[in-house]
Design a protein that fits this description.
alpha/beta, eight-stranded mixed sheet, 12 helices, Rossmann fold
């Protein structure tokens, strides 16, 4: 009887371990291999800048770790002010086009690109900003070296905003940053999503998933902490905007980022209940706010 009990317990433990590993593999794959689909109800423009219409060049960016990124350069007439647009997890190069026309009309050149996971497919994995910072550096290099930009700003969305914060903290060439719907700490965000959408606590599946992501993607998600890095940006100006009812990255992340940032800083709280729907909630106001910030801070 005792032997049978030991066998049953061993089988149960083995099944639990298999389920935990399978669940961890599934959740790690969701992070590493995001499904990207441009939806017009969200991104509005899903073709290329000629749809707006704006003239553009197809460009290729080369990162420091030899990843090639496909992108667009949208030149403004007689201007050396440039803004880099950084899309989010599961997003694409199209995400920033909602703001492109008004920024272009205000005299800003624009650099937009597909992040490494879109440009390279299985050869590169999404890392929630850990490796994508090299993508930002490649875009800034292109603006300054290839296009002779005088000043460079950055506009990031969701994961792209978190990436932009960390990049700007390390790269003093970026002179103004606007961050839309960013998370303050990715581990916290992952835990919140796991509990909200799947009923999971921080352990054991979540902890295993984080470990798997770190191993599979050669990264350290415990170092993706935008609220730590945003404090290092001052005295360069930052602007945070977030939906008060964001259904994916809770509004509390915006408050944490704003509290951690040093002056000069601004926070715009938008009445909307979808993640990264700030432009969609009030296009005219969103365009005015974004354009005014860069016009004041990129000379």
């Amino acid at each position: 009887m005792r032997k049978k009990l030991i066998i049953l317990i061993s089988i149960l433990v083995l099944l639990i371990l298999i389920l935990a590993l399978a669940g961890s593999w599934y959740f790690s794959s969701m992070v590493l291999y995001p499904k990207s689909r441009c939806r017009t109800e969200h991104y509005v423009y899903c073709k290329d800048p000629s749809e707006i219409p704006l003239e553009f060049e197809n460009i290729t960016l080369q990162t420091s770790d030899d990843v090639q990124l496909s992108g667009w350069y949208l030149p403004a007439e007689n201007s050396d002010r440039t803004i880099v647009l950084v899309h989010g997890h599961g997003g694409s190069i199209h995400e920033g086009l909602r703001f492109a026309k008004t920024l272009h009309q205000a005299g800003f050149n624009l650099v937009a690109y597909n992040s490494r996971v879109l440009s390279q497919g299985d050869k590169a994995l999404a890392s929630m900003g850990y490796h994508e910072r090299k993508d930002v550096s490649a875009a800034v290099d292109y603006a300054l070296k290839e296009k002779k930009a005088g000043t460079v700003g950055i506009l990031g969305f969701s994961m792209g905003a978190a990436t932009a914060i960390m990049s700007m903290a390390d790269d003093k060439r970026i002179q103004a940053g606007l961050f839309s719907s960013a998370y303050a700490n990715f581990i916290d965000e992952m835990a919140e999503v796991g509990e909200r959408d799947f009923g999971l606590s921080r352990s054991p599946i979540l902890s295993l998933a984080i470990r798997m992501i770190n191993i599979r993607g050669n990264m350290d998600l415990y170092e993706v902490i935008p609220e730590r890095d945003i404090a290092r940006i001052s005295p360069r100006p930052v602007f945070i905007m977030h939906c008060d009812g964001d259904d994916y990255v809770d509004y509390s992340h915006a408050k944490r980022l704003y509290a951690a940032a040093a002056d000069p800083k601004e926070l715009w709280t938008v009445q909307c209940d979808r993640h990264e729907y700030i432009w969609n909630a009030n296009p005219a106001k969103a365009e005015q706010v974004v354009t005014d910030f860069f016009s004041r801070n990129l000379k």
